[in-house]
Amino acid sequence: MASNPMQQFTVHRIGPEIKIAGVDLSFTNASLFMVISATTIILFLFLGSKEKKIIPNKLQLIAEMFYTFVAKMISDTAGSKAKPYFPFIFSLFMFVLFCNMVGMLPYSFTVTSHIIVTLIMALFIFIAVTIIGFIKHGFKYLSIFVPSGVPAVLLPLITIIEIISYLSRPVSLSVRLFANMMAGHTMLKVFGGFVVSLGILGGWLPLGFSVALTGLEILVAFLQAYVFAILTCIYLNDALNLHH
Amino acid sequence: MKSFLSLLIAIIAINTNLIAAEAGMPQLDPTYWASQAFWLILVFAILYISISRFYLPKIKDNLDNRENKIKEDIENANKFKEQSEAKVKEYAVILENAKKEVSKIHLDSKNILDKDIQAKKESIEKDIEKEILKAQKEISDLKKNSLSSIQSISGSVVSNIIENISGDKLNESSIRAIVEDISKKNMSKYL
Asked: Is B166 among the domain residues?
C-alpha cells in the first residue's frame, strides 16, 4: 500500500547487480541521491566561485556565506588549530545539508534517514578524532576521561561516566541525525496519507499540517546539518585543545 | 464537527494499525548496507577532494581579494584624507600670512598717505598764511592810501563847494587841516 509511511525508506537496486567478493555493492536509489546531492553541491560551488567578482552575484554571495558560516563555526568552537580540518567539516556540513534538503523534495529519497549512512559518518569522525587526539597529545589524551577538580572519592565513577559518554558519541551523533530525518519524513507521509483518505471534505486540516510540517522539516534539515557539523567541531576541539 | 473528529480518529486508528501491521524499518534491513557504505565513502571522498582542492581555495582567494581590496581602499581613503587635511592646514597658513601681509600693506600705505597728507597740509597752510599776510598787508596799505586820497579828495571837494557857494578862494592848507581834523575824529566810524 502506497500510504505505508515507511515505504519511502526502502532501498532498491537501480541498474545491474554489482558484486565484489560476494558483497553486494549495487547502485541503489540511496546511491543515486548521494550522487545527486554531491553533484548539486559541486555545481553550486562551481557556479558560486566561477566569477571572481568584487561585488558578488547571488550564487557567489551564497557560496561565500556558506564558507564564512562554516569558518566562523569552526573558529568559534575549535579555535585556530582546527583550520586544517576546515575542508572536511565544510564538505560534511554541505553533504548532510544537501542530502537533507534534497530529501525534502517530493518522491525523492533521504540519504541521511538511514542509520548505516549516519553511523559510518559518525564512526569515521569518532575514529579520526581519537587518532588526532592521540597523535597530538600521546597518552596524555587519556586525561580527557579524568576531569580536574573532582574529589578523589568520585573520580572512579566520573571516569567511567566520561568513558561511556566518549564511546557513545558516534551512536548519539548518528542516531540524532537518522532519527530526526526518519521521524520528520514519516510524519509528513502520515499526514499526507490522511489528506488522501479523508478526501476533499476532511483533508484540509491534515493538508494544512502537512504544509506547516514541511516548513518545520526544512528547518530541521538545516538544524541537523548544523548540529552534526558543530558536534564534529566540538569533538575536534576536545582532541586538539586538551583542557581537562 | 463531532462526526468529523470521530472520522479523523477512526482514520488515525486505521493508519496506525497499518503502520503496526507493516511495521519494520527498511533502515534495519542489512541487504544494501555494504552498498550504501561503499557509495557513501566513494561519493563523499570525491566531494571532499573536489571541494578541498578546487572550490574552497577559489572562494578563499576571492574573499581574500575582496578583503585586501577593501583594506587598500580604506588605506587610500585615509591617505587622501590626510593629504586633504594637510592641504587645509597649508591653506589656513597661507590665508593667515596673506591676512598679515594685507594688514601690513594697509598700515604702510596708510602711514605713507598720512605723511603725504600731513606734508601737503603743512605746505598748503604755510602758503595760506603767506597769502593771508600778503592780503593783510595789501589791505592795510589800501587803507592808508585810501585815507590820504579820501582826505585830498574831500579837501578839494570842500574847497570847490566853498568856492562855488561863496566865491571865495580859501587857503587850501587850512582846509586840509580841518578835513584832517574831522577825518581823524570820525576815522573810527568809517574804518
From this structure: yes
Chain A residues near residue B59 by CB distance under 8 angstroms:
45, 48-49, 63-64, 67
**B76 min Cα distance to partner chain A (Å):** 17
**B41-61 pLDDT per residue, tens:** 999 999 999 998 888 888 888
Contact A117 B62 (CB under 8 A): no
- Please state, in angstroms and rounded to a whole number, the distance separating the CA atoms of residues A157 and A150: 10
pTM, rounded to two decimals: 0.71
The pLDDT of residue B21: 42
Which of B27, B46, B53, B61 to mutate to probe the A interface, most A CBs <10 Å? B27
Residue that the C-alpha cell 550522487 belongs to? A35
Going from N- to C-terminal start, the domains of chain A cover: 33-240
A67/B63 CB distance under 8 A: yes
Nearest to B26 among A10, A25, A56 (CB): A10
Classify A20 as helix, strand or coil: strand
Domain span at residue B93? 34-190
Instruction: Write the pLDDT tens digit of every residue in A164-210.
Output: 999 999 999 999 999 999 899 888 888 888 888 887 887 888 888 88
Residue B9 to residue A198: CA distance in whole angstroms: 11
| Interface contact flag, B59 A49, Cβ < 8 Å | yes
| CB–CB contact A190 B65 (8 Å) | no
Kindly state whether residue B150 falls inside one of the protein's structural domains.
yes
Closest CA to A48 of B52, B69, B56, B68: B56
pLDDT per residue as tens digits for the range A65-97: 999 999 999 988 888 888 889 999 999 999 999
Is A30 close to B12, i.e. CB distance below 8 A? Answer: no
How far are the Cα atoms of A89, A126, A234, A237, B174 from residue A85, in angstroms, in the given order? 6, 14, 12, 11, 155
* Contact yes or no for B65 and A52 at CB 8 A: yes
Give percent above pLDDT 90 in chain A. Answer: 39
Q: What is the CA radius of gyration of chain A?
A: 22
Determine the straight-line distance between the first and last CA of chain A, rounded to whole angstroms.
55
